[in-house]
Amino acid sequence: MTGFDTAAELRARLGDRDGVWEFLRRFARAWDLRDAGGGDPDRSADRLGVALPAALREAYAIRGVLDPGALEVQDDVLVFHRADPMITETVWGIPLDVAGLPDPPVVIDTGAGWQPYLDRTSLACVDVALTAVVQEHDAGLCNACELPADLAGPAMAAFDRVPLPDLPMWIDVEESPVRWWSGPGQVLRTHGDGGVWLWVSAQTEESLDAVYAAIPQARWSN
């Protein structure tokens, strides 16, 4: 089976943000990410009276990753990404006091104040791109299921862990952590500990069928 191998591609390029941007360019092409939105990020930054972090400038140059229209300043944090407001009001941002760093840390506000999210903006952009694939890819090549605790570990052993740390579930922090997985032509997200919810997106029907074959006990939503 062939297809873009997310975990292997990212693992090979984790050393610096240039490598992560190359991963994201390859990922965006492989998954045909849609344009994330128009607008001029420099003009938006000027309007807000802030300097645009170099890492954000580089991310905006990659089609389908970030929407410049999301830029806003809240509580001395430069907001650069928003969740679908029909789902949650969660926002991601960079504290202005570290915005001058080459690849500054990112914080998140799920409604209870700003909390640490990832220590590199480039890796937060990877998480945003993976989320777009799970949530916005071809509905016919996506599915979800709930795995009880006794099935979750063996099921995910069939896939490669994407090298991102455990993350808070930004829809409901009580359902944390979020973990990313992949196989050739497959991106998978789990959230929860013990029993988990599993979301999968595939590039082809063959890749999706391979997920089904790897987890024969699962009861899929579609």
Radius of gyration: 17 Å
Distance between the termini: 23 Å
CATH topology of the largest domain: SMI1/KNR4-like
Overall CATH architecture of the largest domain: 3-Layer(aba) Sandwich
What's the number of domains?
2
CATH level-4 homologous superfamily of the largest domain: SMI1/KNR4-like
Question: Can you write the helix and strand succession as a string?
Answer: HHHHEEEEEHEHEEEEH
Shape: globular
Instruction: Return the CATH class of the largest domain.
Output: Alpha Beta
**Beta fraction of the residues?**
15-25%
Mean pLDDT: 94
What is the number of E strands?
Answer: 10
Class inferred from helices and paired strands: alpha+beta
pLDDT under 50 segments (min length 5)?
A: none
In what order do the strands lie side by side in the largest sheet?
1-2-3-4-5
Counting DSSP H or I runs of 4 or more residues, the number of helices is: 7
Main sheet summary: 5 strands, antiparallel
- The level of helicity is 25-40%
Task: Describe this protein's structure.
This is Knr4/Smi1-like domain-containing protein. With 222 residues, the protein is an alpha+beta fold. It folds into two domains: 6-132, SMI1/KNR4-like; 136-214, Double Stranded RNA Binding Domain (2-Layer Sandwich). Helices cover 32% and strands 23% of the residues. The protein has seven helices and ten strands. The strands form two sheets. The chain has a five-stranded antiparallel sheet with strand order 1-2-3-4-5. Helix 2 (17-31) packs parallel to helix 5 (121-136). The longest helix is centred in the middle third of the chain and has 16 residues, at 121-136. It is globular. The mean pLDDT is 94.
